[in-house]
Amino acid sequence: MALLDVQHRDPGSLARTGVLNLAHGQVRTPAFVPLATKGTIKGLEPREVAALGYDMVLGNTFHLFLAPGEELVRELGGLHEFMRWQAPIITDSGGFQVFSMGHGTVADEIKGRRAPGNPTERSGAILGIEEEGVRFRSYIDGGERFMAPETSMEVQAALGSDIALAFDECTPFHVTREYTERSTERTHRWLDRCIAWHEQHPTPGQVLYSISQGGVYEDLRRAATRHVAQTTAPGVAIGGSLGADKPQMYEVVSWATDELEKVAPEKPRHLLGIGEIDDLVRGVELGIDTFDCAMPTRIGRHGMALVPDPARRWRIDLTKGRMKHVNEPIMDDCPCPACSEGFTRAYLHYLFGAHELTALRLVTLHNLSFIARLMADLRAAVATGTLAEVAAAVRAGAAPGALASAAA
Amino acid sequence: MALLDVQHRDPGSLARTGVLNLAHGQVRTPAFVPLATKGTIKGLEPREVAALGYDMVLGNTFHLFLAPGEELVRELGGLHEFMRWQAPIITDSGGFQVFSMGHGTVADEIKGRRAPGNPTERSGAILGIEEEGVRFRSYIDGGERFMAPETSMEVQAALGSDIALAFDECTPFHVTREYTERSTERTHRWLDRCIAWHEQHPTPGQVLYSISQGGVYEDLRRAATRHVAQTTAPGVAIGGSLGADKPQMYEVVSWATDELEKVAPEKPRHLLGIGEIDDLVRGVELGIDTFDCAMPTRIGRHGMALVPDPARRWRIDLTKGRMKHVNEPIMDDCPCPACSEGFTRAYLHYLFGAHELTALRLVTLHNLSFIARLMADLRAAVATGTLAEVAAAVRAGAAPGALASAAA
């Protein structure tokens, strides 16, 4: 049985639907993967996330390494047992979090929180990046910790995820081409060490994805993608800096999937950390199989709810004063657990103002339901050869959930 | 149709089972009433609370008066519509909260946070207690507010609760007999004003309960109970100081229900703010029909879970270090949404340490499930003439849920 069983291809793009066959079950692709960063989908239970239509969640190697520690999770039966999620789990490698502490983010840079350039001066949290690995301070106890490619593999093996990701340096947007090139080469040496560790240690039921870096430089990104795709790792994730804006991000992803289509079309492709509505549509067109992103859960906890309104980036802010008297659900005819129970924008506005937990939960449920229906629409659209129409409808503000059935 | 339809009486105590017939449905008594203080059961949705077996929740007049304000709730269809709870709601009068700001609590006194005596020196929040009502500062905006008996009635009418409570001064334990006597007399004058307001204003579907004060003084408590029970208010709540310890509290409640049994046996009886496991058992024996208490939900949010262990006050603290490796549910064979899904003490310990919302929710669900099963046991025990045995079993540490069926 192939890792990815491709079932339909869109004639007008690289989009494809299929099934990822993993140790804990199947994932219908293209799929969005909600975050269970610290071993819980914040405010929800696993059965609720499964009921929304999700087949896989993402656990965070960095956070779980620091607390409760991978040994405790192993002792308690692995991450599936620990968090009571019996379907597939993908774990990131920890690279993104380790390096975020030192590099900062594009957002930091745009907001002036750090100067661009060559990240030779590390912030306090990163103590050193060496060929062997990275030394950093724990945000929990301030103690010095070390993570090497082998550490990341050991932790992910202890967690027992279905998909492990190779340990990489996630280069941010503001670094130079020269730094990106050197870093990407080191990421490739780290990938070899991850593959070697994974081959030498029993990790039943776990597959390893490589990660394509190379920044926003076309030759580097294409070469890096070809390089990692040609290793024995059976899946590929696209990571690192994808650009300063959406057109550049789509272009960078297109370089990567263009290379993947040439050298390893059968390997499943994960796009790391991307999940805005328009990004999911474009990502599917570019041939991405799985996506993870904090957006729907994180914005939900801050009172932002997803609605089919492209002009407002598909979101409304329930905390705004103009919501106070709005006696309507977040979305009309929405089947999510919040809207279908009749909770109104006015009530949610009040709950957010009163710092009531139920508000965070209801909007998180709504947002994840919205994305789940969008992904179901996109899968159905590819299967029925209507992706162009469905994608156009989503971009024009169609509500998710009815598109696929209308197109079918 | 009688407000309270008594169905069974225990031959050995004042315990009784029945049905409270309210505008939004029936409440099986004796019943525990979970708190929906600010119009939400913290972290849960109404459908979940109903699924646990609860027929009624308690909304807080004081908090909802300050935010979002009763006029907004009325505009949005009343409290049932606003919070999407379609079964009965009881609202307290606001008296307890208004006076708590000035009097402090027994707990404050025991912990030395304020001196006992005559509360002539008010804390900053209460600006004045007068015959007309109480002036106080809003904890939300610092603005001066006024609540009179008529205000409380107006707010509760706007909220549209099934049961409104009369506005009273909730006298604390540390005040003198003289203060208690004067205060109780004023509370009776306020009750007359509440009854008058309620008779003069249309409040369809809402019944008014009087409140018995009188502190811990037998003659005052008995007289106050007789007085309020003989008004036209069709139900009676027992409030105010119930003593310094459980024996005294049970004695004070017994004076009240003894009087009620003599002068108004048909009127339903609510015991305000009491809900420990042993208190519920004793309260049922003393003839209480409904109880409300913050305990199960509040302690749940702080990591305390209810277990059938009288020696530990029926609770375990999941935040303690000794829980770190305990790969077992809160309770064996517990049908609650947390235990039945297999979440372990070790996992919940970790989640509380990581400040994850799901932890608060799961333990709240467990605790409310525990209390719901206990109350079902007690109802079944009264109905089958086995209350003495069931009460003894609960006090000896029997798990709730199996008792009633075993006794039947």
From TrEMBL, chains A, B:
GO terms for molecular function: metal ion binding; tRNA-guanosine(34) queuine transglycosylase activity. The keyword ATP-binding does not apply. Pathway: tRNA modification; tRNA-queuosine biosynthesis. Substrate binds at D92, S93, G94, G95, F96, D168, Q213, G240. Its cofactor is Zn(2+). It comes from the Bacteria. The active site is at D92, D292. Residues 273-279, 297-301 are annotated as: RNA binding. It is an enzyme of class 2 (transferase). One of its GO terms (cellular component) is cytosol. Residues 15-394 form the tRNA-guanine(15) transglycosylase-like domain. Binds 1 zinc ion per subunit. Keywords: Glycosyltransferase, Metal-binding, Queuosine biosynthesis, Transferase, tRNA processing, Zinc. It catalyses: 7-aminomethyl-7-carbaguanine + guanosine(34) in tRNA = 7-aminomethyl-7-carbaguanosine(34) in tRNA + guanine. GO terms for biological process: tRNA queuosine(34) biosynthetic process. PANTHER family: QUEUINE TRNA-RIBOSYLTRANSFERASE. Homodimer. Within each dimer, one monomer is responsible for RNA recognition and catalysis, while the other monomer binds to the replacement base PreQ1. Belongs to the queuine tRNA-ribosyltransferase family. Catalyzes the base-exchange of a guanine (G) residue with the queuine precursor 7-aminomethyl-7-deazaguanine (PreQ1) at position 34 (anticodon wobble position) in tRNAs with GU(N) anticodons (tRNA-Asp, -Asn, -His and -Tyr). Catalysis occurs through a double-displacement mechanism. The nucleophile active site attacks the C1' of nucleotide 34 to detach the guanine base from the RNA, forming a covalent enzyme-RNA intermediate. The proton acceptor active site deprotonates the incoming PreQ1, allowing a nucleophilic attack on the C1' of the ribose to form the product. This is Queuine tRNA-ribosyltransferase.
